[in-house]
Each structure stands twice: as C-alpha cells, then as structure tokens.
Give the backbone structure.
Amino acid sequence: MQLGRTFIPTDREGYLKDLNQWSNEAAEKIAAREGILLTECHWEIITLLRSVHQEYGHTPITRVFIKIMSKRLGKEKGKSLYLLKLFPDSPMRKACKIAGLPKPTNCM
Amino acid sequence: MSNTKSLLIVNRHAPYDGMYAKEAMDAALIGAAFNQKVSVMFMDDGVYQLLREQAPADIRQKNTSLTLPMLDMYDINNVYVERASLQARNLTEENLLIPVQVIDSVQASELLGQQDIILNF
Amino acid sequence: MILHTVNKSPARSNCLKSCLRIAPHGGALMLIEDGVYASVNNTKHSQLIVDALTRMQVFVLEPDIKARGLSGLLIPGVSLVGYPGFVELTQTYDTVQSWY
C-alpha cells in the first residue's frame, strides 16, 4: 500500500504486515479501500480496539468486544448492530484491518 | 445445545518456557467462544504464569499474563491454583494478577475427575 | 476414576511427584516411556512408588521395561501391562491425564 512517499507492506487481504507502520493516515486509506469514510464513531471503535489489543495482547471475539464497548463507551453503543452499521458485513475483520491489527483468527 | 462439554486446561509450565502459556490461553478462550464449560488450573511452575508485573520485553517475548484478565471477559470464572504448588514457591494469592480459587490435592483430583476433556500445557 | 500417565524419569522431572499429589485421591498410575525408571527398586526415587502402591494401583508398560533392560529390577507390586492392556486401561478409566 502506497501512502504518500512510503510503501507499507500488507498481506493479500490488506492487513498490515508490520503493526508499527500504522498511522491515522494509513487507517483512512485502508478504510477507503473498504468503502468506509471514517467518522468520529469509527475512530472511537478503532481506538478502543487498539487499546484492548495493547492491554490484553489479544483481539477478542465479537461478543466479548461488544461487552467491552458497552463497558467503556456506554450501553447504547455496546450493541452488535451498532458495530455492524459502522463496519458492514464482517465488522471485527474490517475494524481490525483498519486498526492495523492482525486478522482475527477466532472471528465469529 | 447439548454438545456443551466441560473442558479443563491444565497449566504446568513457567510462562516463557516455549509456547505453552500462550497456547493454553488460546485453547481456553476458544473453548469459551464456542460456549464450552471451561475451567483453568495452574500447578507446578504453571503458577508463575500468574505473577504480577511480568515485563518480558527485554527477552523479546510477549507478555502472556496480559491476556489473563480476558478469562473473566469470556466468562471463565473457574480458575484454580493448587495450594502445594503455591506454597512450594513461597507464593500466596497476593502475588497473583487475577483472582483465583486455591484448591488442595483432593479437590484437584475431583476437578480432574469431573471433566469431559482435559488439555495439558 | 482417572488413569494418570507419567512419561518422564523421576530423576529429570517433577512430573511423577506432582502426579502423586493428586492421583491417589481416586485414580491409578501408568508409567510409560522414561517414566518407567520410577518403578526400579532401591533407587533414590523408589520410595515414591513404594508409597503409592499402598494407596493405588501402579501399572508399567512392559515394552518400555524390556527396551531399557529393567525386567529384573522392578519394585514388587507394580503391574506389567503390554500395549493391548494399556489400551484396555484407557477404556476402563473415565479420563486419562498425562503428566509430561
């Protein structure tokens, strides 16, 4: 993936190979490729997902991530429908990709 | 669904001894993700996995203890530690990162006996 | 009832000791591979099995005994079983717990 003058290696599906190369600009570019224009609500999820990954060394399954959303972002946002609206089709995969995290292996 | 099984994950290895700790944690969380009845037991050097303030960055390892609080998030509430293993290492629950149930050898034996599946790490 | 298997020599690993804290409370012991060294009589570690025998059955895998030339050296009271016997035991007991 070309970002300005830098080339950022990704795998075939578009996940960053080196998580340290992630930046807000990289996130925007990946999102655009997925047909998503990042809003404040998207960023809230991306930031949370990254901090959960940092904190626990693990990307949780959707059900558990929603529980965490509910705790940290408030109950009205802790819903799978909310996540699905922001990241259609496969929310955890898309959110992880945009957040520069590895593809969730246990995605359900 | 009737295909819920009881699954016990037994941890007997120190945290940076190969991949045991990480794989055990993966197995526990995946089991819970598939709605199995998961319990986790730590004994022998496995109890060292639970120590607070691990910082393995300088030995180029991932901090496996970070994932321990995830057990609770996945509703895995049955986390056991064998008392003799703690005592042999001069440890108490105070030294441990997450709340656990300390059990004696008779209870450990009962725990093993109650399981459909036991996975050893 | 649980069948506990131990496959490490007692001189090299704490597997047997750990197993013996738990196994006698409703289980039997099966020594396999280098675990069979624990069943040799009059060694530094023999007492573990001698004590265990007062509380539970102890089986040893005969091919592993033969392979290591241990046939004449065993603690009286341990039961020799072959591969078919081992398989049968795993079916008789509810679960198998392997200590390695």
Q: What stands out?
A: Chain A has a mean pLDDT of 93.
